[in-house]
Design a protein that fits this description.
Shape: globular
Order of helices and strands: EEEEHEHHHEHHEHHEH
Distance between the termini: 31 Å
């Protein structure tokens, strides 16, 4: 079942992986003095959230008891606020996976401490091509993508063991999957104007989804998808991952 929820000019798709959906999950940004951010309502992007790992009952219970799940704020915005320039890097926040992984975990932890229920991994702009341009082979690129999830999970576990975490519901981790345009670093992630049809987009997204879907996250958060062609391609790739008996060709 696919649920379409309009929110201004954003659209959120919730696709249950390997489990039939029984409820929708609403979300909002963590609001604190440290992590407040503004979200433009002029985007025509599309976000998909694919759930695996948590049971339907766990998610349904969260919604019933708490009405919503609070997601983190702008990860790259917080990284920049801490003095790290990622805006000029073609890998954007994924560059921290190469240069400053400790900072990634610190930022995730900060969001949990600020009240977030879900941390989104630093893999939005991660890709085999992008890491390849930095001298990484495919196995190393896959390792870095898994690291993005591991760092968020480590922050979650650290928070859960803290005094504040023991009084809160179990935090979650979403593995971020950005659009093809994100790796071009030319703004096309917001327009969808790039020369790839649906089949080519499926071929491009599938290997990365296979890695991230099996990296230990609770969700796949597929963000800022600018065209329905890419939405269709990503849904097809998700279905392939779900049916694949050997989801990732890369060593774990």
């Amino acid at each position: 079942m696919l649920v379409l929820l309009p929110f201004h000019y954003f659209f959120f798709f919730f696709l249950m992986i390997r489990r039939p959906p029984r409820s929708t999950l609403s979300s909002s940004s963590a609001a604190s003095d440290v992590y407040k951010r503004q979200v433009s309502t002029q985007s025509t992007g599309v976000s998909i959230c694919a759930m695996r790992g948590l049971s339907v009952d766990e998610v349904s219970g969260m919604v019933v008891l708490h009405s919503c799940a609070v997601i983190d704020g702008g990860f790259a915005t917080e990284v920049v606020a801490r003095g790290v320039d990622v805006d000029s890097d073609s890998l954007w926040s994924a560059s921290c996976l190469l240069n400053n992984p400790e900072l990634i975990q610190e930022v995730h932890l900060g969001f949990y401490q600020a009240g977030a229920d879900v941390a989104i991994s630093a893999s939005y702009q991660a890709s085999f091509e992008g890491f390849g341009s930095r001298g990484c082979d495919e196995a190393k690129a896959a390792e870095l993508m898994r690291l993005s999830v591991s760092l968020a999970c480590a922050a979650r576990d650290e928070f859960a063991q803290s005094e504040a975490g023991m009084t809160r519901r179990r935090p979650m981790v979403a593995a971020s999957v950005g659009p093809y345009g994100a790796i071009l670093h030319d703004g096309s992630e917001y327009t969808g104007v790039y020369n790839k049809g649906r089949d080519k987009l499926v071929q491009w997204h599938l290997p990365r989804m296979r890695v991230l879907a099996n990296a230990g996250a609770d969700f796949l958060a597929i963000e800022t998808i600018p065209s329905l062609v890419e939405v269709e391609a990503m849904l097809q790739a998700l279905c392939t991952v779900n049916q694949d008996p050997n989801p990732s060709p890369y060593p774990t």
